[in-house]
Amino acid sequence: MTSIAEVRPIKNSDVPEILELGEELFDTSVFPYSMWSLSAIAKHLDQQPEACHVAEAGTLKVGFVLASMPFFDRKDWGYVEWIALRPDFRGRALATELGDASLRALYRSGANRVVADIDASNRESKLLARSMGFTELTTVTLFAGPSLDWVKSPERGEKVLSGEA
Q1: Around Cβ 69, how many Cβ atoms within 10 Å?
Q2: 55 vs 57: CA distance, rounded Å
Q3: Do the bridges between strand 6-9 and strand 113-115 make them parallel or antiparallel, or are there none, so unpaired?
Q4: Beta partners for 54?
Q5: Please, are residues 67 and 81 in contact by the beta-carbon 8 Å criterion?
Q6: Read out DSSP for the chain?
Q7: Which among 24, 38, 67, 163 is most buried, taking Cβ atoms within 10 Å?
Q8: What's the pTM value of the predicted model, to 2 decimals?
C-alpha cells in the first residue's frame, strides 16, 4: 500500500466506477481497434481476475490496471491492455504499483513475456513501461482500407476479385 492509495484486486462491485473512470480518461480514437466498454473490463476479469487491480484512496477509485493471458495465439504471453490513473494521482509511483501487481500475477500464472501497446505520442505511458523494464520491440502503423463507397465508385468500375468468382 502506498501512502496515497491502496492497490488491491478488483471486485465485481468496483466495475461501475472503473467503467466511468475509463470513460473519463481514455481516448480510444488513438486505437480504433480497442474499445473501452463493460465487455473490455469483463474480458480481463473473466480471463485473469488476479491480474486486474484497482487503486483506491478512501472510497474513491483513482486508478486501475486490466491485464490477462493469453495474448492472441501466444498462450504464454500476458497483455496489459488498460492502465489508468486520475491526473492528480500521477507522478507518485502509483501507476508503477498497479503495473507491478499485475505483472506479478501474470508471471505467477506462467507468462514468459508480457506486452502492452502504447501510442507513440503517449509519453507518460512509455516512461512508465520503460521504468518497469519493458523495451520497445516494434512500431506498428495501422492502415485502414477505403470505404465501400470508394470500391463502388464509377471511376473504379465493378471488378470481380478472383476469390469472389
Answers
A1: 20
A2: 7
A3: unpaired
A4: 8, 64
A5: yes
A6: --SS-EEEE--GGGHHHHHHHHHHH--TTSSTT---SHHHHHHHHHH-GGG-EEEEETTEEEEEEEEES-BTTBTTEEEEEEEEE-GGGTTSSHHHHHHHHHHHHHHHTT-SEEE----TT-HHHHHHHHHTT-----------PPPHHHHT-TTT-----GGG-
A7: 67
A8: 0.83
Residue in this structure with the C-alpha cell 495501422, named with its chain if needed: 142
Nearest to 102 by CA among 37, 10, 21: 10
Q: If the chain, 165 residues long, is cut into consecutive pieces of 10 residues, what is the mean pLDDT of each piece?
A: 84 97 88 85 96 97 97 95 96 96 97 93 93 90 75 62 56
